[in-house]
Amino acid sequence: MALSDSLLTLSLALAAEAAVGYPNRLYTAIGHPVTWIGRLIKGLDRSLNRESWPFRQRRIAGVLALLVLLTVTGLMAWTLGALLRPLDLMGLLLLAILASSLIAQRSLHEHVAAVSKGLRESGIKGGRAAVSMIVGRNPQSLDEAGVSRAAIESLAENFSDGIVAPAFWLGLGGLPGAALYKAANTADSMIGHRTPRHEAFGWAAARFDDLVNLPASRLSALLIIMAAALHREASPQDAWRAVRRDASHHRSPNAGWPEAAMAGALGLRLAGPRVYGDVRVEDRWMGDGRAEAKADDIDRALALYRTACALLFCLAAGLALLAWFIAH
Fold first, then answer.
1. Helix residue spans in the chain (DSSP H)
2. Per the UniProt record, which residue ranges are transmembrane (predicted)?
């Protein structure tokens, strides 16, 4: 697929997903690409991750599992693209619809907005119930400020790996690029953990996910800073300052970039010490504002997020137009 076609596919996919998301009826009927990828990962985990094997052998098995996952996913996506490409405009539209399922603008907004709604309508109990759907930390350990910060942190981090990253690889590599990214990201979320079962087997998935998210995390921070410049109550200068000072101190090589940008833009402190299950994680703070976030701050973050998504679409459409002019 030519770069101009993949960028046009990206523009159409972003617009389609923002408009309708992934319909619940479709999910009920056939599932979702992520659930299909997840089944393959579970199968590979069951068959190749043997607890009786030594650490080095399990790490090699994890590398093999990742290669199998990427090969199967890439071949299926490439085949779909090859079948649809001869259909010209209709094929392009169908490709865009397929690709839109790999982007999560609408669902992320809905899940984070539900936390704000839960806090407003049902207090801390409602906020904890809603935030438990999007974060892995123990919701019972969170007060209202903790719930609000968790929702904003999830919004910032998932803006990068749920929207900007698949969009980046879709624009660069068409449907196969986005599908391969989604496979790698799903593998990281399922097996890329430092647990007795997955510390060795999930090592390759975790490291590869860090690598493929590098460009998107930086672009996400830039989009948030640009969005802050368009909002009167946000500060692009503080967002830029927080990214330069704090992003590299996050335990993730990528999550700190959008989180620091969001924290600085909103005048908040994000990340910091928090509890996952029964384990307390002593992370550095992102931003130097107030830690006492509330539902209003979630709404402010969502407003920045919507603007950043619009800027991403404008960037994709502008690059598609430029690539078309160059090609013709």
1. 3-20, 24-30, 33-48, 55-84, 89-100, 105-131, 144-158, 165-191, 203-212, 214-228, 236-246, 256-266, 295-327
2. 62-83, 89-108, 303-327
Backbone angles phi, psi at 31, to 5 degrees: 85, -155
Residue 274, phi then psi, degrees to nearest 5: -155, 170
pTM of the model: 0.93
Query: Which amino acid is it at 153?
Result: E
pLDDT band at 140 (very low <50, low <70, confident <90, very high): confident
CA dist 6 to 98, 99, 121, 171, 319, Å?
13, 10, 43, 5, 10
Burial readout 207-231 (b: 16 or more C-beta within 10 A, e: otherwise):
ebbbebbeebbbbbbbbbbbbbeee
- State the residue range of the domain holding 40: 3-327
Given a contact cutoff of 8 angstroms between Cβ atoms, the answer to whether 40 and 72 are in contact is yes
Q: For the segment 174-223, what is each residue's pLDDT rounded down to a tens digit? A: 999 999 999 999 999 999 988 999 999 999 999 999 999 999 999 999 99
